[in-house]
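Technical note accompanying the year-one report. For the benefit of new consortium partners, we illustrate the data format agreed upon in the data management plan: each record pairs a sequence with a structure-token string. No post-processing was applied to the example shown here.
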Amino acid sequence: MNISRENIDELNAVIKLTIEREDYEARVADVLKNYQKKAQMPGFRPGKVPAGLIKKMYGNAATVDEINKLVSENLSNHLTEEKLEILGEPLPSESQKPIDFDNQSSFEFAFDIALAPKVEMKLTKRDKIPYYTIEMTDELVDGQLKNITGRFGENKAVETVSAESLVKGNIVQLDDAGNVLENGIFAEDTVLSVSVIKDKKEQKKFIGKAVGEEVVFDVKKAFPNDTEVSYILKITKEQAAEVTGSFRLTIKEITEFVEPELTQDLFDKVFGAGVVSSEEEMRAKVKEDLEKNYLLESDYRFSVDARNKLTNKVNLKLPEDFLKRWMKATNRGDEKLTDEQIDKDMPSFLEDLKWQLIKNELIKANELKVEESDVVEFAKKSAKAQFMQYGLTNIPDDYIVNYAMDMLKDQQQGRQMAEGAITDKVIAYIKEAVKLDEKVVTRDEFNKLFENN
């Protein structure tokens, strides 16, 4: 067995493995002996099939299999022993000579590899990265309070229509004379929201009306959006685009959303038993939770800006041609990757790879480590974030822990949690190492930071 490496340039190399008969002969013989012990063929007792016949039937396949195993084992060992940091995986070399397993006894295999570029990353207080804090306002707290308590409100019947009402009734299309249009559109028990009527004159026609009364209005003026019209008239969007003229709605039901009363029962439902006991405490709790959530958002935005800063700071050359080949060779999707798709995806792939190399260097240079407890904490944070997306802010800690542990049982999710935990360590290190350019921004200004990034 002979292994050699030839560096093509600073990023590309070829590893060649030469395998002689003596490297695989004994291994193949052992495999064939094992086949012979288990072989069952007509005319022979179990385990008594002649060795020559076994070799004739299985010799070539066993040889190919053992040679492939030898190649894989020795290639892996070589990368480990030489401490080679590579990108992607070795690929059969474009210079590989044809192999004839039937007639050759000596084989040469060549593999192209991509060498990871050296990364030098030193951070000082001269490196400045923005850190955005979202300004806490009464308006934000009010909005969050409404979102939280609104889940416990209900629609109640009212006597007359207001700008906030939902109106239910039967609607029919009219002709130019105001009569019911023959073969026109009719929809029973349609529901429309008065608050979303765009035209103020059309909206005014509904205000003050009671159950049993009729409203004649121009549905396209009231609702310029064809999707809304199709929903109200119970027709297709294409049909809604052709609708013109007036419609008459006979009101059958008027309801309005009523906010829940601020009682201890509501406080317990929202925040858990006994956590808050007054409107003032509820407001303080909501503000506290908002500040925690906004801190997470600020840290996330910092991670985005830190990544951009560091990837721009380091001029890394990457073996793009090899990486394109590797992406195509390892694609496991349902559809085959085209060259056009690879070219389109390449810029973002290279940015991700640069960031991974930078993270690896920071981890190694600063001996950053992740303990099992760090992974569990990251999983708990991820679980909380998932619940918060649905407005669930009072989930008991033991439920969060159980949910996090269930995620970690899944192998793929476990890897993701571990990767997230080490990334958090890297971001925390960067945060301490650089100068934070702290900025207080409004909620809208913060959201706009993500419009183009």
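Partners are asked to follow this layout when depositing records. The mean pLDDT is 90.
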